[in-house]
Amino acid sequence: MHADKESGANTNLFRGYEKCRRAPLLARAGTDSSMETRTRLALLRYGLDCPQVNYPIFVGNGPRPIHLDLAYPEFKICIEYEGSHHAEQWLNDARRRQMIEDAGWKYIQVTKLDIGDEAGEEALARRVAERIQEITGKTVQLTTRQTIRQVSDAR
Question: Out of the domains of life, which is the source (predicted)?
Fold first, then answer.
């Protein structure tokens, strides 16, 4: 049996203990869905900085902000996860996207295909890196895919 060095606690209490211990290092308050979390973690796994979660922006003359799923506000890049929904929701999302783009934000749409496997995640990270490069004129180098353990250790 191993002991946790800081607390002296037994780290073999149950299967998955180590993952549970690391989870708070990767958690972000205010996340609306597990798919948004998976999107954020996919970006981190390829070495991109952590985007802000539920970032508020004011668009048009509305009295209240809309909240972007994920955002790099310093670059005005918005990343929105689009699930499968009915036609009316699709129309609302299209209107929302137009308002975000009209406010000067670059919009990156993510679907389950983008985070369904390693190839999709890498392509998504590359799309985000390319947008940052377009805006800054600086090369954004992706890393090789990191494990969740490596990502949490870096936090």
Answer: Bacteria
- Facing residues of 57 across strands? 66
Assess if residue 115 is contained within a domain.
yes
* Domain assignment of residue 60, given as a range: 30-154
Chain centroid to CA 134: how far? 20
Express each pLDDT in 134-148 by its tens digit. Answer: 999 999 999 999 998
* pLDDT tens digits along 81-118: 988 776 778 888 999 999 999 999 999 999 999 999 99
At residue 26, the pLDDT reads: 52
Here the CATH number for the domain that contains residue 134 is 3.40.960
Residue with tokens 């909240």: 67
CB 106 within 8 A of CB 78: yes
pTM: 0.79
3-state secondary structure of 68: strand
Contact 106, 97 (CB under 8 A): no
In a domain, 121, yes or no: yes
Q: Which of 82, 80, 90, 17 is nearest to 53 (CA)?
A: 80
pLDDT digits (tens, 9 = 90+) for 122-133: 999 999 999 999
